Sequence to fold (389 residues):
Amino acid sequence: MKPRKVSERVQWMGAIDWNRRLFDSLIPLPDGTSYNAYLLRGSEKTTLIDTVDPAKVDILLEQLRDIPQIDYLISLHAEQDHSGSIPTILEAYPHAQLICSQKAQELLIDHLHVAKERIKIVNDGEKLSLGDCTLAFIYTPWVHWPETMVAYLEEENILFSCDFFGSHLATSDLYAGDDPYVCEAAKRYYAEIMMPFRSIIKKNMEKIGDLDVKLIAPSHGPIYNKPQCILDYYRNWISDTVANKVVIPYISMHGSTEKMVEYLVSSLAERDIKVEKFELSSTDIGKLAMALVDAATIVIGTPTVHFGPHPIVFSVTQLANALKPKVKYAAIIGSYGWGTKAVEQIAGLIPNLKVDVLDTVMCKGYPRKEDFEALDRLADKIKEKHALL
Fold:
């Protein structure tokens, strides 16, 4: 992809990674991703904001082929998909000064072996003149590493947000426009990466709240030329508001847990409660994370394996605990052959979820009439709690 004009001063550069399907050896990328860098040319200084994943550095170097000088190379976030090519760019432009936050300096030295003398630290709120335009730096820690910051081009009202407001989406479109698919990709991105830091993101949203933003230029996905859309979505996602929705991640070995889940889904639907169920042997964990963004209740379904929960349920429950969704209620259902400690073990896996555990329904063998009646009572209890939302 060739450089693309954003404004008279700003060009998009970077790489569209159409074929990447896994991030951090964990996160599914069904739609690929992009690594966005931005070249700013002021009347006196030229600046490159972020770089690209090292695997795509040749693309960035080709885009920079006719740029004789870079005065400043800005690292908004030290993770390798944005900063991994910094050593290559610094070698290509030996007079460029690397600009980063206080905490980023140590990470860039440790992770990329950048020479300390090439680094200039900027403080929260500090400004950098490029001649006829100015960049203001705002610290936004934990979106999603501790050293992250954003940069605001005051004269053009452009917020360079790096991972903040990003979306893993490979597209030839430079701008998001009104495309709902971009917002869905952004929700997946928030769920998988940002959700654990919801309370801190609230504070960061306040820090940028007074800016007059006309464009949000993230480092993944298209540029938001109608930024109010993504800002409103984020305000909803980080709020305490939850939906009348139950998410049921589960697995079944011999059909017992499957039968209980099917019955509970039907029972909840009869009570006008939306349900999203995820059979974990084939689930896209990104879809599960998205469902948890605004769910009021999670019901974990598991058979018993050697007295504990199924290993896949164990793993996904631990992941849900790490993601820290704002669910308010939880329940555990499942089955066992002769004995079980699955409930106790699952409960011990979710200390980060500040939930009211409504009930547990564990049946021995295949569910009987009394087990289905217990599931109906659980559905009644969920309906009662959801009515208070």
Notes: The domain at 4-238 is CATH 3.60.15.10 (Metallo-beta-lactamase; Chain A). The mean pLDDT is 96.
